[in-house]
Design goal:
Distance between the termini: 23 Å
Oligomer: single chain
Order of helices and strands: EHEHEHEHEHEHEHHH
Shape: elongated
Radius of gyration: 25 Å
Number of helices: 9
Length: 310
């Protein structure tokens, strides 16, 4: 049985692959059966060719190739889904993650009987100061939303039990917040500082356009973690607020009519009452629909938040 799977998504990293593979092999746990899984996310350089040649030479080496560039989340999902190890370590393919941390994380998760160990790039070797600042701001905001102590939710280097992967909702561009959902599910986790290195070859795949996506994801996480448990209550609050304002507008319209101050048609109140009432009903139906979807999700996954399996 395979004990540990190393999953590495790559996109145009032909200059780093051979060195990375050699360093991974040199740092795999001894006397444990391990596998290395590379997922080529539609590279247009020689990455696929290099990986194909390595697969023929190395035992327990898997190479998955996506037919186009789907993004890191899809590549990670494909790699982890095909992992056979009891534990999985994910890392970047640009050599900024240090393979020497593989043994450290694996031994730590075993010794402390954890579900997941997150990497923390405390001393980031980024050339772009602006990116580091944005990343720190995003992590601070998300920490407050989640009310936890994780310092670096965006670090790709992490080690976790393979079975918990099937209990996490996975969606587009979700790799950055995989850790957040693991914490939200109540798994036993800890954080270790990783050795973060400078990129020596190739180009970074993240531009400034990612900044907007990060803040949109923050809004998404805020919504999910505050409403996932009881979505009907979450949507119901907004529905009642809108219904209350609709009632006030109706009372004001009746007051104007009874005392001859203004006619309905001389004010925007009828339109406002209709808009607020319809919005209230629509939001309430969103809550009901979300509640039904959540119930179906728990049924299909066989999960119950109030049950802890021993």
């Amino acid at each position: 049985m395979i004990e540990l799977s190393i999953v590495i998504p790559i996109f145009n990293e032909s200059k780093n692959i051979k060195k990375l593979v050699n360093e991974i092999i040199a740092n795999l746990p001894t006397k444990k059966k391990c596998e290395i899984i590379f997922v080529d996310d539609g590279s247009n350089d020689d990455s696929s060719l290099i990986l194909y040649e390595l697969k023929k030479k190395i035992n327990n080496f898997k190479f998955l190739s996506l037919n186009k560039n789907y993004g890191q989340s899809t590549a990670l999902h494909a790699g982890i889904s095909n992992a056979e190890g009891k534990y999985v370590i994910t890392m970047d393919g640009d050599l900024q993650n240090d393979p020497r941390d593989i043994k450290i994380f694996y031994e730590y998760i075993i010794a402390n009987k954890l579900d997941c160990v997150f990497g923390w790039r405390k001393y980031r070797k980024e050339k772009d100061f602006f990116r580091k600042v944005i990343s720190k701001i995003a992590n601070i905001i998300i920490k407050k939303i989640l009310n936890n102590s994780i310092n670096d939710l965006g670090c790709s280097f992490k080690c976790f039990r393979r079975e918990i992967f099937d209990q996490i909702i996975w969606s587009t561009d979700f790799h950055r917040y995989f850790s957040a959902f693991i914490v939200n599910e109540g798994f036993k986790t800890e954080e270790l500082i990783v050795n973060h290195k400078k990129r020596n070859a190739g180009k970074s795949k993240y531009g400034y356009s990612r900044v907007f996506g990060v803040f949109i994801d923050i809004i998404f996480l805020s919504f999910v973690f505050k409403s996932l448990r009881k979505p009907l209550h979450f949507f119901g609050k907004f529905s009642l607020i809108l219904l209350f304002f609709s009632f006030l507008c109706a009372m004001l319209a009746i007051y104007y009519k009874l005392f001859g101050i203004k006619k309905f048609t001389e004010t925007p109140l009828p339109e406002l009452i209709t808009l607020l009432t319809l919005s209230s009903i629509i939001i309430l139906f969103f809550g009901i629909l979300s509640e039904l979807i959540l119930s179906l999700y728990f049924h299909l996954k066989g999960k119950r938040d109030y049950v802890t399996k021993k």
